[in-house]
Amino acid sequence: MLIRWANENDLPAWYALATEVSAIFQHPADMGAELKTKKSGTGTIRRYEMLTAVDYMSGNNMGFICFSREKNSITWFAVSENYRGKGAGRHLLKTVLRQLNTNKDVSVNTFVDGYAPGMAARALYQKFGFAGKRVFEHDGLPRSEMVRPATNEKRGGSFHYRYPEFIKAAQKENCPACNNETMPDGQIDIVLNGKICVGGEYPGQGRLFGKCYVMPMEHYFHFEDMTEADAADFMNEVQRVGKALRKVTGAVKINYEMHSNSGAHLHIHLFPRYLDDDFPSVPIDYRINEPAPYESYEEYLWFIEQMRRELE
Q1: Sequence-distant (≥ 6) Cβ neighbours of residue 205 within 8 angstroms
Q2: How many CB atoms lie within 10 A of CB 274?
Q3: What span, in angstroms and rounded, lies between the C-alpha atoms of 166 and 158?
Q4: Which pLDDT belongs to residue 186?
């Protein structure tokens, strides 16, 4: 299955699912017809607050979940009967919790304990750390507020946790790199010209001496959208930087990784690999950067200068 943001083409399927689950929700009328009449969902889609699970082979919408970043809550959630028990609900809920602030309480209003058609939903919430807080009445029906207590979860800056900000920065007019915003602490330009920017990092991702990155000056979000000429020029520059990096650092190998999951302006990471590095036979954990792999900050500055000499 594919978990993706819902768009306006998905609204008929959402309305149909709402009609299907009206009885389970104990809704006195056709919930889907009401949502359609009110033209509900367009604002939720625009704010990136509605997800859908899609069956790859059929293209059918398996389920939907809506949420509110402002209220830090889940506002609507259902999976079609034809697709229950296939993990769609679990994947949808997991993904929403990434987009909400888990350092605060996350809430949802759902079925009361003991209501048979709602037990599967309550059990899923409980698996993800929700617990019943109070029972109240909504539209004349009993409902239960369940709350997932705040955690001390540490998160990176990738789109998995901050999609609206990330996708906004993917546009050239909002791109921090294209607008010459201040570089993060510890980053120094090794090369900056009309073609590329090569940046050094202190203390350095993965605790790898000489870890750096290469970024094209032209704004691209997806590598596959690069023109053939730009892609060839960029990769030639990456190859040139890699050759210099191996010479300066004495690395056995240079690993080349293109992610752009946090910084939306395309760039490629160069990770020097050594006999004694911390990742034999496993992927590099970029989150590890302390203690620094340099003997001192002066040694880091020495590395920057050596790279500049090689690349000049």
Answers
A1: 211, 269, 271, 284, 286, 287, 288, 289
A2: 16
A3: 8
A4: 85
Q: Tell the burial category of 252 from Cβ atoms under 10 Å away from its Cβ (0-12, 13-18, 19+).
A: exposed
Pairing label, strands 73-79, 106-110: parallel
The confidence band for 67, taking pLDDT boundaries of 50, 70 and 90, is very high
* pLDDT number for residue 112: 94
Show me where the domains of the chain are located: 2-148, 178-311
pTM recorded for the entire structure: 0.91
Sheet with 50-54, strands from edge to edge, namely 2-5, 50-54, 61-68, 73-79, 106-110, 141-148, 131-138
In this prediction, residue 114 carries a pLDDT of 92
- Domain covering 2-148, topology: Aminopeptidase (3.40.630)
Beta bridge partners, 216, equal 196
178-311, CATH topology level: HIT family, subunit A (3.30.428)
